[in-house]
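Title: Prediction job returns without error message
Component: structure pipeline
Severity: low
Priority: P3
Assignee: unassigned

Description:
Job completed but the reporter wants confirmation the result is attached to the right record. Sequence as submitted:
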Amino acid sequence: MECYMTMLTLDKKGIAGAVALGAVLFLLGGSFGWLLVAVMLYFLVFSYVVTLIRIDYKERRGLTEKRRGIMNVAANGIAPLAFAFVLYFGAVFSNNLLELAGIVGFIGAVAGITADKFASELGVLDGIPKEILTLKPTKKGRSGAVTLFGLAMSVVGAALVAGWAFPLAEAFSVVGGGIGGAGLLAVVVLSGFIGSVIDSVAGHFEERGLGNKHTSNLICSVAAGLTAIAIVLVV
């Protein structure tokens, strides 16, 4: 058990919360339950990987968390869970639009929190951070600060999650709606990147006493999911 706790960088309550979240997602997802759980596991695994990159450097400068708890799980899981409920009710009421919104919103939300994780963990390793709204240079690790390298890494993070767009497009009616795997992949990457940028904007206000890292993560995932839905519906 200690091995898995170390791998996921979660404390005991965080582990319990993650397991509970996975179980609920599997039940709500119906035939897509495996996809929802797999995408969330993707996020957990890649979060662990990017946390380990140059961990000594980040720990010496206080730029990373050694342990994450139930609040981290809630902040990153509430939006995906909400979109899973949309998917569930779409299936219950045989509403294809709700099903589409639920599954696309879910994968967009996870792309957003993954993009943000890549940006925050890797962005501190290179470049001069600047306030996202003022573009003034600031210290590394400050909420609301971005680097060009971090922005690029956010695209990479979103793209890794977007790889699930191909089996999703094949299995779901988005194909019939005119969007294939490549198109959905682009939507997920874009929405994930936008969510990460919005997280940085929220972080700007977080530094001024409005919200905290958990609310910023929640805003990121909601924004990314809604962006993905909006793009798909417009297209």
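Comment from assignee: result matches the submitted record. The first strand starts at residue 130 and ends at 131.
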